[in-house]
Amino acid sequence: MRPLSTFPPKFYCGIYSTLLNLASRPEIEVVRVHWKMSRWARGEDMPMFGFYVYAEESGARVSAAVA
Fold this sequence. Notes:
With 67 residues, the chain is mostly loops. It has a domain at 24-40 and 47-67. The protein has one helix at residues 60-66.
């Protein structure tokens, strides 16, 4: 199974997003998120990172602002 979307490696703090357009894929009913973290340097003993996933329908913020 091929991924529908991927992120390139990131090395700096920030919020990163991607758009996943499923309009041409009506057979997809469920999306599963999979991630793997890895070190890229040997500095601190305890790596510092956070990760969360947030999904919303495209245009949802615009629709809410207009209403």
